[in-house]
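thought: fold this chain, then report.
action: predict
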Amino acid sequence: MGDTGRMADVSVRPALPADAPAIGTIHAATMRLAVEAGLREALDPEIAAGFDPAGFAGQWEEAIATPPSPLHRVLTALDRATVVGFAAIAPVDEEVRAGLDADPPEAEILALEVDPARCRSGHGSRLLAACVDVLRQQNAGHVMTWAVQGDDPRARFLSSAGFAPLGMRRTW
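observation:
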């Protein structure tokens, strides 16, 4: 007998420290892809190797286990029991708020990432909706996020969700 039409068991929940290795793997892959999109070319293999999943995992484990404030949150997207994406939210840094003209956002989506092999399956939209739910509970009226210039798929996703460019730039 074929598929009965059941929807896959997909969800979003607060991240657990045990999710950190999967989050690290996803973040290393998506960060590398974002940098390549911004540069509009593939990274040299030696540079690409610097996007170390274990290094990212350690940072995410700490962020999950000991967040800097109750307003800092990490969420995970699941497909059954597999972590397929994550998002992180926090209050907007005061320096960033000071650089905005009128009506500065109170909250920031620091990361909203989906395993590249699982994109276009609704995980990003579910993560964004969960972020909005949490931010509403925190009484955040406005939210901002960042995209690498040249990461056109992310820009289209964010635009379709109602985000508009603020004209701000970050440099490293």
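thought: worth noting. The two ends are 55 Å apart (CA to CA).
final: tokens above.
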